[in-house]
Every structure is written in C-alpha cells, then in structure tokens.
Amino acid sequence: GDLPQFDHALNAVLLVSHIALKQGDKVGVKSFGGTDRWLPPVKGGHAMPVILNHLYDYQTTSAPSDFAAAVEQLMARQRRRALVVVLTNLRGEDGKELIGALEVLKTRHLVMLASLKEKTVEDSATHSVEVFPGALRFLAADRYRSERREILAALGMRGILALDSTAQEFAVALANRYLDVKTAGKI
C-alpha cells in the first residue's frame, strides 16, 4: 500500500497497546536489530503517551536481527510471565535461530510470532506465468512461502502462537489475536 511495512508494524503495536491498556494490561516494548531500546511495562491512563513518545523516532536499519541476544536481554528485564509478541518479517534463513530463541522465551512467557507477509511475494505466487523470468519469480516466491510455512508449522508444534498476515491486515489481525488469547484466559 501507501505505507512501508515498518509503519504497518508500528500501527499494529499502537493498536494492540491501546487495546491491552484498555483491558487493564501492562505494555512494554523491546526493540532490536539496529536499534536496541527498552520501555519497561507501563499501565494506566498515562501509558499510551509514554508508549507513543518511546516509539515516535523508531527507524528501520539494515542491521541483522539477533533473536538470541534480544531474548537474553528480555529474559533478564522481564521476570514476570507475560505475553511476548515478536514482530518480524519472517525469512527462511532466520528459522533455526528464531525457533531456538523463541523456545527459550517460551520457558517463562506466552510467545507469539507476528510476521508480515510481503504483498509482492504473494502477488508473484498468484500471477500467471508466461515467460521465463516470470517462472523464476513464481518459483522463488513459492520457495519463500514454503520456507515460511515450515517455520510457522515448527513454531506451532512447539506451542508458540503464530500470526502471518499482509501489512494491510496486520494491525487488525494482531489485535484480534491478542483478544483471542485474552478471552481464552492464557494471559
């Protein structure tokens, strides 16, 4: 759409934060992958402006995400059990490190991986193939999607919640998933 994926992710964080605060929950934010910052969990009527002030200058970087280091830092800072939502753009090469890191996180927390699907990949997989470059694009998109499905299935088998949604649907899908978890009494 008109917004970068990162902005869709921030919108999702803000929507879920607003809903969680209205539900009486605390909300904290840990960023990693170039910008390592921590906002300890906050609660109450003053919390939304605190979250907005914390997030307003977040930027994307080209630095790789170190999931293991981020989990280690979060485990040291967040001692009480919590729903931890990891927002990412899942890639096949992240699989082994990501699964291992989320398994460690799961020893104390309820964990959800929320991944943004790339619309261009989804579109490539559904367009008709008429020329060789189109066939290559289709096969690459199919491989990319297959790797993501394998990682998501592996996470599900380990009891880690997963959400995989396009950017345009991401905020509402994540909010609904949070409400489902809350309604089920898992947090």
What's the N-to-C terminus distance? 33 Å
Q: What quaternary form is this?
A: single chain
Largest sheet: 3 strands, parallel
What is the topology, as strand order, of the major beta sheet? 3-4-5
Basic shape: globular
Q: What is the strand content?
A: 15-25%
Decide which structural class fits the backbone. alpha/beta
**Level of helix content?**
40-55%
Mean pLDDT across all amino acids: 91
Uncertain runs: none
| Record field, number of beta strands | 5
How many alpha or pi helices?
Answer: 7
Taken in chain order, the helices and strands follow as HEEHHEHEHHEH
- Rg computed from alpha carbons, rounded to a whole number of angstroms: 17 Å
What brief labels describe this structure?
5 strands, 17% strand, three-stranded parallel sheet, globular, alpha/beta, 187 residues
Overview of the molecule:
The chain has helices at residues 5-22, 47-55, 67-77, 95-106, 119-126, 132-157, 167-183, and strands at residues 27-31, 37-42, 83-88, 110-117, 161-166. The protein has 187 residues and is α/β, with parallel strands linked by helices. Helix 1 (5-22) runs antiparallel to helix 2 (47-55) and helix 4 (95-106) runs parallel beside helix 6 (132-157). The strands form 2 sheets. The protein has a 3-stranded parallel sheet with strand order 3-4-5, with helices on both faces. Strands 1-2 form a two-stranded antiparallel ribbon. Strand 1 (27-31) and strand 2 form a beta hairpin.
